[in-house]
């Protein structure tokens, strides 16, 4: 549930009282004493609610609200006035500026908290309703960037996981394209961006990928280098996607020979667990991000498996960590964690539980495919 | 999103004045740099000196800047990347398409 509130008031004591009240109910507060300071905060983060005083030196609450309404990124952030200036004309003007409420400062704290809770619950419910409606429409249109189930193969067990960021749809996409009884193509991609924008674009990328695979297969061509080359060409030529880039890991599973072929575009390396090696092996692809260059080459590499060995495809959210409020990207940390989990004998389900534990700070959407040789 | 610019006789230096270069700043960063390019600055040095963490959205914005400059015969050099960020460019093969130099002095030599 979203709970970050920006408090704007030139009276420091009032800010302290509000902070104490809101924090006691689980809210996070950012307190500032002027509109100028509030604007600096809003350059870096968007709160879930803004509560502003009316009378402040330099710029007052109405000036602040008018500026917010002109800013596309901020105009829809729920806004409340909390002030001692309660003449009718001011209340009317505050409400005309699309504030959700105009609250007198002498309101009893319990009532103020109840109003804020009701408002936040309504906003959250409305968001969930809209999200659910869009997801339903996407489902009806057969738009899905994560498949409902993994393919069942003779020689490999396939598992996959996808965890969205803060419950927003994201730019990661996964697909399994079964060519015939022998061959299956697996893709894991990540459109650069977060939340809605990346989610919408992921369908454009997936459509091109599915089409290119089908067209190549119809021509009897299962060469990943050529399939990726075609995908890249069409994406490069699409003006709609000219500023949008995506990584892509592509694996062709040969279920008869029990081997896989791998190629990629700007993706993180395929990782492989083998009992013979200390640590996970990295198989780096050589392709550049889809859509960046008109003519890119994408070399493919064969990867053989002994029984019990596993390969992992990961999106970049899997290597982003937040430790002590410091964010960093560290593939070696992921490799170490995965290797330690494997040698400690953890099952695939347990590994999933540990990697996607809610206690672990996640800062992007995360996707993960496990290919295990039976 | 804060950037500052310094014009030298060889290039426009763009300093990213943010510790966290992320999704919430990537679109604005792209627009600010595009504006500089439209003003005629086609030789750019982007400094990451103050950036501790860069996410894939912001990385995408930097890639978009390079793609925008290529048909204009422009040049873009990235400097002062910390080890994590440099590693991210290498992991995604972007070190093959970007000129990455240690500092502004080193970057200035290639214009």
From TrEMBL, chain A:
<feature type="domain" description="Response regulatory">
    <location>
        <begin position="4"/>
        <end position="120"/>
    </location>
</feature>
<feature type="modified residue" description="4-aspartylphosphate">
    <location>
        <position position="53"/>
    </location>
</feature>
<dbReference type="Pfam" id="PF07228">
    <property type="entry name" value="SpoIIE"/>
</dbReference>
<dbReference type="GO" id="GO:0000160">
    <property type="term" value="P:phosphorelay signal transduction system"/>
</dbReference>
<dbReference type="InterPro" id="IPR052016">
    <property type="entry name" value="Bact_Sigma-Reg"/>
</dbReference>
<dbReference type="InterPro" id="IPR036457">
    <property type="entry name" value="PPM-type-like_dom_sf"/>
</dbReference>
<protein>
    <submittedName>
        <fullName>Response regulator</fullName>
    </submittedName>
</protein>
<dbReference type="InterPro" id="IPR011006">
    <property type="entry name" value="CheY-like_superfamily"/>
</dbReference>
<dbReference type="GO" id="GO:0016791">
    <property type="term" value="F:phosphatase activity"/>
</dbReference>
<dbReference type="Pfam" id="PF00072">
    <property type="entry name" value="Response_reg"/>
</dbReference>
<dbReference type="InterPro" id="IPR001932">
    <property type="entry name" value="PPM-type_phosphatase-like_dom"/>
</dbReference>
<keyword id="KW-0597">Phosphoprotein</keyword>
<keyword id="KW-0378">Hydrolase</keyword>
<dbReference type="InterPro" id="IPR001789">
    <property type="entry name" value="Sig_transdc_resp-reg_receiver"/>
</dbReference>
Automatic annotation (TrEMBL), chain B:
<protein>
    <recommendedName>
        <fullName>Anti-sigma factor antagonist</fullName>
    </recommendedName>
</protein>
<comment type="similarity">
    <text>Belongs to the anti-sigma-factor antagonist family.</text>
</comment>
<dbReference type="GO" id="GO:0043856">
    <property type="term" value="F:anti-sigma factor antagonist activity"/>
</dbReference>
<dbReference type="InterPro" id="IPR036513">
    <property type="entry name" value="STAS_dom_sf"/>
</dbReference>
<dbReference type="Pfam" id="PF01740">
    <property type="entry name" value="STAS"/>
</dbReference>
<dbReference type="InterPro" id="IPR003658">
    <property type="entry name" value="Anti-sigma_ant"/>
</dbReference>
<dbReference type="InterPro" id="IPR002645">
    <property type="entry name" value="STAS_dom"/>
</dbReference>
<feature type="domain" description="STAS">
    <location>
        <begin position="18"/>
        <end position="111"/>
    </location>
</feature>
């Amino acid at each position: 549930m979203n709970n970050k509130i920006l408090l704007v008031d030139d009276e420091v004591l009032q800010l302290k009282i509000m902070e104490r009240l809101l924090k006691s109910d689980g809210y996070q507060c950012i307190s500032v004493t002027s509109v100028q300071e509030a604007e600096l905060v809003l350059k870096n983060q968007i709160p879930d609610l803004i509560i502003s005083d009316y009378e402040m030196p330099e710029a007052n609450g109405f000036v602040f609200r008018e500026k917010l309404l002109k800013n596309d990124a901020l105009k829809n952030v729920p806004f409340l006035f909390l002030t001692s200036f309660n003449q009718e004309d001011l209340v009317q003007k505050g409400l005309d500026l699309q504030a959700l409420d105009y609250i007198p400062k002498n309101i009893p704290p319990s009532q103020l908290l109840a109003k804020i809770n009701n408002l936040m619950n309504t906003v959250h419910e409305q968001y969930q309703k809209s999200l659910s409606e869009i997801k339903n429409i996407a489902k009806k249109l057969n738009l899905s960037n994560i498949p409902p189930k993994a393919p069942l193969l003779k020689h490999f067990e396939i598992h996959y996981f996808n965890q969205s960021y803060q419950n927003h749809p994201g730019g990661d996409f996964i697909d399994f394209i079964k060519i015939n009884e022998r061959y299956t193509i697996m893709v894991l991609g990540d459109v650069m961006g977060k939340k809605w924008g990346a989610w919408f674009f992921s369908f454009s990328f997936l459509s091109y990928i599915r089409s290119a695979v089908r067209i190549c297969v119809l021509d009897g061509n299962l060469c990943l280098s050529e399939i990726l080359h075609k995908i890249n060409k069409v994406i490069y030529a699409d003006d709609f996607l000219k500023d949008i880039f995506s990584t892509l890991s592509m694996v062709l599973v040969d279920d008869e020979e029990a081997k896989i072929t791998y190629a990629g575009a700007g993706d993180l390396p395929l990782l492989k667990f083998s009992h013979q090696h200390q640590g996970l092996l990295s198989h780096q692809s050589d392709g550049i991000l889809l859509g960046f260059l008109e003519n890119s080459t994408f070399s493919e590499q064969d990867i053989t498996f002994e029984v019990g060995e596993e390969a992992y495809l990961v999106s970049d959210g899997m290597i982003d960590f937040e430790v002590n409020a410091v964010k960093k990207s560290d593939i070696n940390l992921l490799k170490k964690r995965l290797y330690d989990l494997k040698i400690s004998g953890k099952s695939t389900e347990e590994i999933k539980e540990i990697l996607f534990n809610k206690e672990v700070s996640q800062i992007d959407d995360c996707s993960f495919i496990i290919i295990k040789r039976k | 999103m804060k950037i500052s610019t310094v014009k030298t006789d060889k290039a426009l230096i763009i300093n990213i004045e943010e510790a966290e270069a992320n999704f919430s700043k990537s679109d604005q960063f792209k627009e600010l740099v595009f504006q500089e390019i439209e003003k005629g600055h086609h030789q750019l040095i982007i400094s990451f000196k103050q950036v501790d963490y860069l996410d894939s959205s912001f990385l995408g914005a930097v890639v978009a800047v390079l793609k925008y400059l290529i048909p204009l015969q422009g040049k873009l050099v990235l400097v002062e990347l910390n080890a994590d960020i440099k590693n991210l460019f290498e992991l995604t093969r972007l070190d093959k398409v970007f000129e990455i130099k240690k500092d502004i002095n080193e970057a200035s030599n290639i214009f």
